[in-house]
Amino acid sequence: MAEKRVALISGANRGIGLEAGRQLARKGVHVVLGSRDPEKGKEAARSITGEGLEAETVRLDVADGLSVAAAVEEIARRHGRIDILLNNAAILIDGPGGFRSSLFELKADTARQTFETNVLGPLRLTQAVVPIMQRNGYGRIVNLSSGAGQLSDMRSGFPAYRLSKAALNALTRITAAELASTNIKVNAVCPGWVRTDMGGAEAERPVEVGAETPVWLATLPENGPTGGFFRDMRAIPW
Known about the structure:
eight-stranded mixed β-sheet
């Protein structure tokens, strides 16, 4: 019997990350939920294991390189593999240069803090996990992006977040190009406007729908796409 795939999801103690973990676990994947707060991570894992599914947690702060290294090392020690990486952790700062502000109000600290989590976090995790995927000859990396980062439809508003998601899309393309000769597929996804703590109560999509395309990309077959940007399982412009 083949070993179960192992998935690491950052920022997974709530929202799309947690729901994606639940949906992956239902597909037979062993899920590791990354959370900055270990207790919240354990509570999230229990919400999945309570269904008779497999899930565990690991302390993970994507803005801290030492935390990333320790988390990946711990998962590799436990399981000897990481097959799926879902870069979900992200922040949207509601302040000067944040959610409602103009680009001309953007503070450098807001931009730095946003990029630390939204861009350098996925970069750190990708650099740490890819060697493990390469050893096992298989990998699926999914970057949770946003339509806010689409250059084809770029507008004003929340500039730090928009800039970070555009950069995450660039990271997706670069990573996919470097891994094009391998069985590691790298894609970005816009989940749409989802009812989460970030999306707010007025968002049009339930979290279950928001998680569907990330889960699809996390379980692509060998002939699946790489280096693409998707919403509702369809390619969208960068």
